[in-house]
Design goal:
single chain; 4 helices; 37% helix; YneQ; four-stranded antiparallel sheet; 100 residues
Length: 100
């Protein structure tokens, strides 16, 4: 279950993904499979090859891409999430969701 984002943030992420940009959306998240995780960052791009190539620099594998409808994305969790947000200069996500 996702929460903690505004509709316009979601819509902006969707627009960027559909335009073939690598876009990031961080939100609070609850999933019984990950009891120690309460946020996720979705790194998405409508061009799966571009997304896979982007992910390589962080050790992400193409087969980890969630290919849901028009919004393929990687789910970034935990330390990897923080590492990538820092590298992508998205400290606002880290601060907003108190990831450190």
């Amino acid at each position: 279950m996702a929460f903690g984002i505004k509709r316009n943030e979601l819509n902006e992420w969707k627009r960027a993904v559909l335009n073939g940009e690598v876009a990031f959306l961080t939100h609070y998240w609850l999933d019984d499979r990950y009891p120690d995780v309460n946020t996720v960052t979705k790194a998405g791009c409508g061009n799966i090859d571009k997304l896979a190539e982007w992910g390589k620099q962080y050790g992400l594998k193409k087969e980890w891409i969630h290919k849901r409808s028009k919004f393929p994305h990687f789910d970034l969790l935990g330390e990897k999430q923080i590492e990538i947000l820092k590298q992508e200069k998205l400290s606002s996500h880290i601060k907003r969701f108190r990831l450190e």
